[in-house]
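Colleagues,

For the teaching module next term, I've prepared a clean inverse folding example: a structure given as tokens, and then the sequence designed for it. I'd like students to try predicting residues themselves before seeing the answer, so please don't circulate the second half yet.
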């Protein structure tokens, strides 16, 4: 069965940067997604199309096909007191509302005196991604998975209905 829209896909992968440092990996068949529903980065989803169970391949994704180029315009420095009494450290992440009203992951990138620099870029923005991928399973998605637009891990509910 080929990977096409509305199929549930299980892959094992190792993701490295250009220096060979492992960024992420899933080698226990726990990474499952619904193909054709923008649940994974665009370049990876495109590369998986029409593959079959058992296929293994290497994939290099430039930032434009992954998390985008780094955009310095979405960093800003805010006063430390904007965080109230919360302890703030470099690398901390939290959700904020973006200009379009959608949630955005913000990372504390620098603390200088009473100023905190926050960064709205995805952590892998501007990074070339190097994947080693093995396709473990290709199956038809269930009606529930299709109606929700994503896979539920191990039969768990996602807490919403459509």
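(Answer key — instructors only)
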């Amino acid at each position: 069965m080929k990977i096409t829209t509305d199929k549930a896909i299980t892959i094992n992968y190792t993701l490295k940067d250009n220096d060979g440092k492992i960024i992420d990996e899933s080698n226990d068949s726990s990474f499952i997604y619904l193909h054709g529903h923008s649940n994974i980065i665009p370049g990876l989803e495109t590369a998986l199309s029409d593959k079959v169970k058992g296929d293994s391949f290497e994939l290099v994704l430039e930032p434009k096909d992954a998390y985008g180029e780094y955009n310095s315009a979405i960093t800003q420095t805010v006063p430390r007191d904007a965080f109230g009494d919360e302890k703030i450290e470099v690398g901390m992440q939290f959700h904020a509302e973006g200009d379009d009203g959608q949630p955005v992951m913000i990372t504390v990138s620098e603390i200088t005196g009473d100023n905190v620099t926050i960064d709205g870029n995805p952590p892998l923005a501007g990074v070339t991604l190097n994947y080693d991928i093995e396709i473990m399973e290709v199956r038809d998605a269930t009606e529930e998975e299709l109606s929700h637009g994503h896979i539920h891990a191990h039969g768990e509910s996602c807490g919403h209905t459509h």
